[in-house]
């Protein structure tokens, strides 16, 4: 799986539709202060399912929508599209039917955000799993933001372990285990209730 293109519309400072071709070998983005380098990286994390507004440097998720400038009114929605080359068929099974995968996330004021993969509506969880299984989730250490290197050096062992797990592509398994544990505990509670009801009937 290789990211080939990122398209932004109304996302933070990228009010007009903007396309970034992610050519092979691209390892960094440079530019003057405030030109939108961090916004690009955030768009990439966001389309992969990042759900913490703080990771987007905002108070709420709607803060990713272009908020207006002296010469332009605010936008009502933001959309980011990530195109992935899958000709080598490395995507997880559920997505592995196409040569190209297009993931779209769109947020509309007061209406929340929706995801689409290859034109079909998708759950946030499925999109997060697609990237987690491919060792490149929204928390991926492959995306290095400003200040992250010093954070890494000062990180506690547990936080460092999480980074290694993400790189090894097993963070999706942890998420699935967590969901299975929740289901199990729900079922155990139901069983206890059934036992109580049976006791009352006796
Ligand atoms: P630096 O090198 O200083 O860290 P940068 O190139 O990483 O800068 P960003 O932080 O990506 O720049 O972009 C900052 C710009 O994005 C600021 O001008 C800010 O006003 C603008 N911006 C952020 N959020 C929004 C928003 N919701 N609507 C409009 N503009 C926004």
Automatic annotation (TrEMBL):
Protein's cellular compartments: Cytoplasm
Subunit-structure text: Homodimer.
The protein, known as: Chromosome partition protein Smc
Primary role: Required for chromosome condensation and partitioning.
Portion of the full-length sequence here: 1 to 202 of 1150
The family this protein is said to belong to: Belongs to the SMC family.
Organism of origin: Paroceanicella profunda
Top-level taxon of the source organism: Bacteria
Binding-site list for ATP: 32-39
Domain remarks in the Swiss-Prot or TrEMBL record: Contains large globular domains required for ATP hydrolysis at each terminus and a third globular domain forming a flexible hinge near the middle of the molecule. These domains are separated by coiled-coil structures.
